[in-house]
Amino acid sequence: MKNISKKAIAPIGRRQFLKSSGGAALFIGVSGLLPNLISCTDAKGMEGQFAKHDVTAWVRITEDGQITIYNPAAEMGQGSMTSLPVIFAEEMDADWSKVDVEFSPQESDIYGSPGWQPGTKLMFTVGSRTTNSYYTVMRNAGAQARYVLLHSAAKHWEVPLEELTTGASEIMHENSGKKISYGALVPYLTMPETLPDFNDGGLKDPKDFKLIGSLIPRTEIPQKVDGSAQFAIDLRLPDMVYGVLERGALHGAKPTLNNESDILAMDGVLKVVPFNYAIGIVASTLEAALAAKKVLDITWSDAQASGFNSQEIYDVYAQMASAPEKGNTVNEVGDVDQAFRTAAKTYEADFKNDYVYHAQMEPLNAVVQVAADGQSAEVWVGSQQGPDTKLGIPDLLGIPHEAVNVHLQYLGGGFGRRSMNDFVLECGRLAQQMAPKPLKLLWTREDDVRYGAYRPLTLQRLKVSADAQGNLSGFSHCVVGDGGNLVASGARNDHYTIPNQWVEWREASHGVRLKHWRSVGHGPNKFAIEAMLDEVAHDQGTDPVALRSKLMADSPRALATLNKVAEISNWDTPSPEGRAKGVAFVEHGSLGTGVCEISVNRNTGKISVHHFWIALDAGVVVQPDNVKAQMEGGIVMGLSSVLKEQITIVDGQVQQRNYDSYALLRMQEVPDSIETIILPSAEHPEGVGETATPMVAGAIANAFLKLTGKRLRHLPFTPDRVLEVLIG
Amino acid sequence: MATYSLNINETLYEVDVAQGTSLLWVLREHLGLTGTKYSCGIAQCGSCTIHLDGNPVRACVLQVDNVANGQKIKTIEGLSENGDHPLQKAWVEAQAPQCGYCQSGQIMQAAALLEKNPNPSREEIKSHMNGVLCRCGTYLRILEAIEMAKEQTNTTS
Ligand code: FES
Ligand code: FES
Description:
The complex is a heterodimer.
Chain A: H1 4-7, H2 10-17, E1 24-29, E2 36-39, H3 43-52, E3 55-61, E4 67-71, H4 80-92, E5 99-103, H5 108-111, E6 113-114, E7 121-122, H6 130-157, E8 164-167, E9 170-173, E10 178-181, H7 182-185, H8 221-225, E11 241-247, E12 255-257, H9 260-264, E13 269-274, E14 278-283, H10 286-294, E15 298-300, H11 313-322, E16 328-333, H12 336-341, E17 345-353, E18 365-370, E19 377-381, H13 393-397, E20 404-408, H14 422-434, E21 439-442, H15 445-450, E22 458-466, E23 472-481, H16 485-488, E24 500-507, H17 522-540, H18 544-551, H19 556-568, E25 580-588, E26 590-600, E27 607-617, H20 624-643, E28 649-650, E29 653-654, E30 673-678, H21 695-708, E31 714-715, H22 719-727
Parallel strand pairs in A: 4-5, 11-21, 17-31, 19-20, 23-24, 27-30
Antiparallel strand pairs in A: 1-2, 1-3, 3-4, 6-7, 8-9, 9-10, 11-14, 12-15, 13-14, 16-24, 17-22, 18-19, 18-21, 22-23, 25-26, 26-27, 28-29
Helix pairs in contact in A: 2-3, 4-6, 17-21
Chain B: E1 2-8, E2 11-17, H1 23-30, E3 49-52, E4 55-58, E5 72-74, H2 86-93, H3 103-116, H4 122-129, H5 139-156
Parallel strand pairs in B: 1-5
Antiparallel strand pairs in B: 1-2, 3-4, 3-5
Helix pairs in contact in B: 2-5
InterPro entries (chain A): Ald_Oxase/Xan_DH_a/b, Ald_Oxase/Xan_DH_a/b_sf, AldOxase/xan_DH_MoCoBD1, AldOxase/xan_DH_MoCoBD2, AldOxase/xan_DH_Mopterin-bd_sf, N-heterocyclic_Hydroxylase, OxRdtase_Mopterin-bd_su_IorB, TAT_signal
Domain Aldehyde oxidase/xanthine dehydrogenase a/b hammerhead (chain A): 226-304
Protein name (chain A): Xanthine dehydrogenase family protein molybdopterin-binding subunit
């Protein structure tokens, strides 16, 4: 994991990073180097250390007892700004009231958590991996920080380290009655020769946790209620200019600009920059850039998506699902063909889902400043980071990785869209032309909708076989659509014991931009699976909870969530007249079962969801209230997508433009309550950000089946579609 | 270009901008009052909600020309001295924000309600707040916060 270029990073990123006024920073060495303690007042010494070693600072302590912990993950509302520092502070035994939190530099070799491949590191806030992947990293680093403090106190007092205890930023020596605060210890800090790896032993027993699992307000919330929280879109720099792009409604179409000289003659317009899929404009003010964007006269070429009609493609997909050749295997257990040959009864149904759009409230934007000589760049961005923590800017500018400094800002929503860095590269290209002026690039909402990268449209053919006793013997799931793992994730059943299972993906391609969208394939796939199970239960006259309970016999943790949610939702008590309950189970790292209660207006076709109950097993929960917030938000986003959201494409052209044509769920449509019960666990933490959203479609479809005897099989369940199903 | 003087948060600001410029760009890009957010630009999301003479309005669809005649503009920055408006305190108490981007608009919209109707019902709150979108889905906590603030204001006054 040696990386030569890393050493040269120091002069840029780190100097600002520790623009400290005093105290000591504790650097935990990587690559086998010894840890280091550096006085923050000794700027020269600090730089010397940076130049010499690969070091990582997780924490800075000052003599007044103030502690700064560095957060390596993006903050997009999921609470990483609190949860990761809490884990560190727990093992360090820090007084939480004295802790400040800042973003760490964007250097994955140093601040990354274990990546997908063994031995790799990543700074990538995706897939609900933050707490899950940083849990051991932060615990070990926090315990090492505590060890350094203990070591220093032992030296200072000349007593054996083993006789010392810690609590709330204090070290105690019981035999002598001595006490010293972490802050007061700063002048006496010394470095032990070696630091233990506490993952091999010596971490706290979870039952002794004081911070983890308690109610700790999120650190960044005060800034989010007084308007001071800074998102990249809020950045203003001296001499800053503005960039916008006009992209087509047809993804990938090439533009020919017919009125360049008129545009250049407009007030405030500084430059026109052609891209192969857009026309860029740079102007001295945002309003001038937007005014010019409005009057661009562009002729667009055809592209792969020309002629594509999203709502007509389902017939083609259905034929593809019927073709005799199998697709790519996603999962295979037992022999599903044999199960169908010997079945007493079989079931088959097609489920469909339209494209959906991220609709994060902060439209995409970035600020980039390229140096006059083009040899370095500063980037301010709300990004979910990525395998390249410099977001592609070094390659774009042809400069070394270490010459680019990324200042991570709060994200006004991510949901997967901000793990794609197209907007950062666009900003870089425009900024390069304007160097050394900083340039702010803004996507309007229309840009964000039309040139979005959607959750793919799919058709899913499910087949189930039951034996003579009614036990499920085979389960086959064929996903047809564009996007590989984007459509295949979540199609496996790891917690239902069905002896023969088969999951395959049949590939389509339309040239429409696609991306991970909160919970990815789990949304459509869990819908299909959970709705299919209830269709079988309905036919068999079995209770849907009882059916799942039998299938979960080998998965006690999943079963516990099912039993718990049945209890809190009073599953066995019938709903009031005109209402019904439905259940759905989801595994996405954490395990959760949800129950909703709905009613349907049979005149308008509008579904109302009155309550949602969730039982969740997420292993150790660092921030219980925040996990509940994630469940609430996940359900609301699920409701929005399941009941309303739809991107449609006609002759390759995206039909929606803004929130008037792409409706999101509003306050008057929220359930009366969303109740989450977290099951206690000492297991490793699992992600929670994407577990709730995929419950929604299945739970609603199942409640609808109970209420009306009819089947909802096409997302979203818009009033028109609901009426059609009710009449049909 | 023209010069406009704006009364914002009880301070007089002068700006030189093109006629017809949206108040939102004036606030954010020219005056640095970035607590007010852009999200749709067509009065559909409420992220840009401010008070104009005490009424909640969408800054994105107001032109600077029409608000430079002495009208009182209030933004999130002017709602309270130290972020301690009863609603802001309740928002923290309820841990309402997630990404936070919509929250200035939510709070400004709610503040206008409580000024006119200190004791709104849950249905009144929902209908008053319906124009402000939150993609993170924090609606239930926003409701909780408004109900908390309303009780607090009613017991202290
Ligand atoms: S930005 Fe003004 S209402 Fe959306
Ligand atoms: S908190 Fe993220 S949009 Fe409302």
